Amino acid sequence: MKKMVRRITLVSALLVSAGMAFAAVTEEDAVNIALSDAGLSREEASWLNSHRDRDDGRSYYDVEFRSDEGKWEYEIDGESGKIIGFDFEEIRGRAASSDSIDRAEAERIALSDAGLSREDVSRFRNETDRDDGRVVYEISFVTADNEYDYDINAADGAIISASWEKRGRVGGDREARLSESEAEAIASGALGDNAERLSVWEDWDDGRYWYEAEAMVGDYRYEIDIAGNGDVVSVSRELRSFWR
Predict the structure, then answer these.
(1) Are the C-beta atoms of 86 and 75 separated by less than 8 Å?
(2) CATH number at residue 42
(3) Mean pLDDT of 54-62
(4) What is the pLDDT of residue 159?
(5) Could you tell me if residue 183 is inside a domain?
(6) Pure H helices in the chain
(7) How many C-beta atoms surround the C-beta of residue 141 within 10 A?
(8) Which of residues 66, 90, 114 is at a domain's end?
(9) What's the domain count of the chain?
């Protein structure tokens, strides 16, 4: 009797395992997930291609297709159906619609905000990503002194987030330390007169004093890092309303 119980248990386990395998995302499911995220129907997509792939122990689907707007590429997790990779390439020469911007305009917005020209920067990168159904241009570049990162909303050109950070060794004297009022004054100077709800606190990291500040300026939430010698080493901001 004990042997029979063990055999039944083993068979049940195999059935459960097989059921889990059949419950995984199919190739058809992956295609539908990608099309839904792109806001397209089967009839609106052309050159549709999909196949299953595997990388570092993870099974996923590559799904590619084209529309009147451009070329879409997705990676869909084979177990959960989650979108784990996305890229969109706009058709060259296509005029942008009245409610969207192209890659070149996103580049101009980022450089203008940084107060730089294309000739001033190197290691320029401009990629397209998609998050929660929104197309976003991810732009980064460097100068001799700073690194810059931008996320630009493709729908209207709004800067979703932006940051710059000093390159190389920063911080100066390891013993340098600011008073609370000094750190607040430096943060206020970096943010301007419209800063609200400013808060500053001291931190100790890598054998140095650092100061972190947070504040609201208009529709953006700002974060600032200040070294113990008073140098502002990074500033980042994020549009509060974008992800609501």
Answers:
(1) yes
(2) 3.10.450.40
(3) 88
(4) 95
(5) yes
(6) 2-22, 27-38, 103-114, 180-191
(7) 22
(8) 90
(9) 2
